[in-house]
Amino acid sequence: MKTLTFPVKIIGAAWKQQNLLIRNFRSSAAINMKFVQYKEKNSQKQQLGIFSDDGSEIKDLSGFSNDLKTFIESGTTIDEVKSKESGLKSVKTADVEILSPITEPQKILCVGLNYRGHCDEQNKPYPKEPMFFSKFASALTGPYGDVIAHKISDQIDWEVELAVIIGSKAFHVKKENALDYVFGYSVAQDISARDWQKMRNGGQFLIGKSMDSFCPLGPSVIHKSVIDPSDLPITCSVNGVLKQSGRTSELIFDIPDIISRVTESITLLPGDVILTGTPSGVGMHRSPPEFLKAGDLIESEIEGIGKIVNKVVEG
């Protein structure tokens, strides 16, 4: 796979940084199936598109839908999109604001302690069954959106994660069929206020995981037909210093297993998001512990899927 780079101008009050590099676009003669939500300059209208092969342009999919969740729910096939490729209007990526590729999912499910290295750094045995928790959809922010350092916490931590986007209604799904219910994959940060996760709120995770801006996602959703996510490098850096480096093959419970177990009792719907866990290197378990502060820059990347960059700002 050829690695390409191009400059993206981030537009908006949150963070105006020019020449940010989005990497790892698959170079191919076929249409690039990286779905992105965006706003054009001086517009509040959310639009849906797909990145061009080199990522420098976005091909407008407003003829299908203006948001990815509705597009998925419609059942539109990839072949239908490809058949319209030549007639799609394009905009320059540098001229738009890239949004979270999914907005208002019914559910954001997360899996704790799902990387072997993350268990090892805590001296914890590998779990026998997944530990599920959730984040509110209001925690979502874009791939270049700000992460708020809320004043009620002084232990805000990073967790890079592979995100799975559900493509069709799923209930009582067998492992061998589970990937049939996936639409695609994205890069996420499970930002966590450790004091609220571990010591406050009665030990319940929800507040510590669901504060506003605590789920950066993007920059796009890559369709499952484009990539196999089972063994990809996954990294997180803070202020240019590598903090997390692992591979998605470290997952204790893989994506089919997660979907099968969840749907034993919970229906997954199109557009639902599953965060699959984080590798070792989180701030809480470093010696001494490290936490995010205003001014820090978090860079999270999964090879072949994309990179998100988020600045920490005062709350």
Question: Could you walk me through the main structural features you see in this protein, from its secondary elements to its overall organization?
Answer:
The protein is mainly β and 315 residues long. The chain has six helices and 21 strands. It has helices spanning 68-74, 78-83, 116-120, 194-199, 206-210, 255-262, and strands spanning 7-8, 20-21, 34-40, 47-51, 57-60, 90-92, 96-98, 108-112, 131-135, 140-141, 147-149, 156-157, 160-166, 182-189, 192-193, 215-223, 233-238, 241-247, 273-275, 297-302, 306-314. The strands form four sheets. Strands 3, 4, 5, 6, 7, 8, 9, 10, 13, 14, 16 and 19 form a twelve-stranded mixed beta sheet that branches. Strands 11-21-20-17-18 form a five-stranded mixed beta sheet, with no helix packed on it. The protein is globular and about 55 Å long. The model is unreliable at 1-30 (pLDDT under 50).
Question: How much is the average pLDDT?
Answer: 91
Number of helices: 6
Strand content: 25-35%
Shape: globular
Radius of gyration: 18 Å
Distance, first to last CA: 40 Å
Class inferred from helices and paired strands: mainly beta
Number of strands: 21
**Uncertain residue ranges:** 1-30
Helix content: 10-25%
* Succession of helices and strands: EEEEEHHEEEHEEEEEEEHHEEEHEEE
| Largest sheet composition | 12 strands, mixed
